[in-house]
């Protein structure tokens, strides 16, 4: 009996030793991480250094959204620069308070984005969150397949190889599928993020440099115009910008694998500053060069040649590498809900069930992508319906639900209202404009569904 008591005390001490405390000003209660049987509290799974978390953040957030930003500026006018800056700050703020929500209960850490919604508003809150959460992840993957498939088809056609748009998207889907079924956790797919991060940086550089090289000839042959503010299309711009910054649904998994989770605010801030800088560079340059004639994605505004080929290949590689990260987030949560575990099936059978589930998921996304092959419209719709909720609305609402309005300082309360207004405008009016644009392109039989100008 004394031996049991001694072991219990030692276990309690180990639990205390790994406690990481997140404190905030005011009346917010201290929340702690304690080592339990939960996957995310097990130190054997908290192995990732800060640089891996940083790369995961940048790779997942700075994806195809960066290609839409010059067009978003055309929709909003130059005031869109302010929206991008504000969204960068919101990205740091919402990502920080989101992780605090994971630790609202001192005795345990919530494991995923939907669990926060369930803890805040019960079963229906979880279902409501799951809808927007999965819409974002799966919708984003569809966008990846559409973009990479279109670019692969374009490259092959210039090489006089004609296999068709659907076949190209099938090739992209298979390439995404391979690491998705082979790698089980976020930590395992982190190495893919490093290549995606480097690809994004190079694509931004190529688009900016090539654009400025051709700027004189573009302005000599085209009637380039600019706007300060476009009220009518501002909701669409908000939706596009929110899509470009949204990564909150992945943050619980990224933070859950960090070796030093107390460094999360610092890592998130560095990541968001990096992303915002790239976004400002791409959006300001793209809009300055092409004005209201800019296309979405912006690479379609570049003349065909070696620089564009390099950019197209790199961004295609990026989305192909980022997709398994996004899908792994969805799969880990869905498989846990469906009890697809080694404990239930055994190691070999669990792999088979997981393999089948992830294969069917990829096949379904491919089917959607070839049915609605409109990059700009799908991006806008996903941005309006999902990212405005998961990025703007949910973190604020949950934080207030857990800690109370008094936990926010006076300036935070004002900022929270601004965030909620942006989210509401993006969801309601942005969705309407996205659906109208999609209907228009379908009825018009747009011959270039990847681009809009």
Describe this structure in words.
By secondary structure, the chain is mainly alpha-helical. It has one domain: Up-down Bundle (Amino acid/polyamine transporter I), CATH 1.20.1740.10. Helices cover 73% and strands 1% of the residues. It has helices spanning 2-17, 50-61, 65-76, 80-102, 113-158, 165-182, 186-213, 215-221, 234-245, 251-256, 264-290, 306-337, 342-345, 347-371, 375-403, 410-444, and strands at residues 20-22, 31-33. It has a two-stranded antiparallel sheet with strand order 1-2. A hairpin with an 8-residue loop joins strand 1 (20-22) and strand 2. Mean pLDDT is 82; it is low at 1-42 and 447-451. It is found in: Membrane.
Jot down its keywords.
about 450 residues, 16 helices, 2 strands, transmembrane helix, Amino acid transporter transmembrane domain-containing protein, Amino acid/polyamine transporter I, disordered C terminus, mainly alpha, two-stranded antiparallel ribbon, single chain, about 0% strand
Shape: globular
Cα(first) to Cα(last) distance is 76 Å
CATH superfamily: Amino acid/polyamine transporter I
Task: Give the overall average pLDDT.
Answer: 82
Largest β-sheet summary: 2 strands, antiparallel
Strand order of the largest sheet: 1-2
Helix content: over 70%
Total tally of structural domains? 1
Unreliable residue stretches: 1-42, 447-451
Radius of gyration: 22 Å
CATH structural fold name: Amino acid/polyamine transporter I
How would you classify the helix and strand content by structural class?
A: mainly alpha
Order of helices and strands: HEEHHHHHHHHHHHHHHH
Number of helices: 16
The count of strands amounts to: 2
Just name the CATH architecture.
Answer: Up-down Bundle
CATH C-level? Mainly Alpha
Q: Strand percentage, roughly?
A: under 5%
């Amino acid at each position: 009996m004394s031996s049991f008591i001694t072991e219990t005390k030692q276990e309690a001490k180990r639990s205390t030793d790994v406690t990481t405390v997140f404190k905030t000003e005011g009346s917010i209660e201290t929340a702690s991480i304690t080592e339990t049987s939960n996957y995310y509290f097990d130190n054997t799974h908290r192995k990732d250094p800060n640089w891996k978390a940083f790369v995961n953040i940048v790779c997942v957030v700075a994806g195809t959204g960066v290609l839409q930003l010059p067009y978003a500026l055309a929709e909003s006018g130059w005031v869109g620069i302010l929206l991008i800056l504000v969204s960068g700050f919101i990205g740091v703020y919402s990502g920080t308070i989101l992780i605090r929500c994971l630790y609202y209960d001192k005795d345990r850490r919530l494991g995923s984005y939907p669990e926060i919604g369930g803890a805040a508003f019960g079963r229906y809150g979880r279902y409501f969150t799951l809808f927007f959460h999965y819409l974002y992840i799966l919708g984003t993957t569809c966008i990846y397949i559409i973009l990479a498939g279109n670019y692969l088809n374009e490259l092959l056609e210039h090489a006089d190889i004609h296999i068709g748009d659907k076949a190209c998207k099938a090739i992209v889907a298979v390439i995404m599928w391979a690491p998705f079924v082979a790698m089980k956790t976020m930590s395992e797919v982190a190495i893919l993020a490093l290549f995606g991060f480097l690809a994004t940086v190079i694509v931004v550089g190529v688009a900016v440099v090539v654009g400025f090289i051709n700027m004189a000839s573009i302005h000599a042959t085209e009637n380039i115009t600019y706007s300060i503010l476009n009220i009518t299309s501002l909701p669409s711009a908000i939706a596009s910008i929110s899509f470009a910054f949204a990564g909150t649904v992945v943050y619980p998994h990224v933070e859950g694998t960090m070796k030093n989770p107390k460094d999360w605010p610092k890592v998130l801030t560095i990541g968001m500053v990096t992303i915002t800088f790239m976004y400002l560079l791409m959006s300001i340059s793209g809009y300055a060069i092409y004005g209201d004639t800019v296309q979405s994605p912006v690479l379609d505004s570049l003349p065909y040649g070696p620089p564009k080929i390099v950019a197209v290949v790199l961004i295609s590689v990026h989305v192909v590498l980022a997709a398994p990260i996004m899908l792994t987030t969805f799969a880990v949560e869905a498989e846990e809900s469906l009890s697809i575990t080694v404990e239930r099936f055994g190691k070999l059978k669990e792999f088979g069930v997981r393999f089948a589930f992830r294969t069917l998921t990829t096949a379904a996304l491919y089917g959607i992508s070839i049915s609605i092959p409109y990059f700009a419209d799908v991006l806008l719709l996903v941005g309006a319906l999902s990212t405005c909720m998961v990025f703007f609305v949910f973190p604020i609402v949950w934080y207030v639900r857990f800690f109370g309005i008094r936990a926010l300082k006076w300036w935070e309360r004002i900022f929270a209202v601004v965030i909620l207004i942006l989210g509401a405008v993006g969801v309601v009016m942005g969705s309407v404009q996205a659906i109208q644009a999609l209907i228009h392109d379908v009825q018009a039989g747009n011959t270039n569904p990847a681009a809009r100008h």
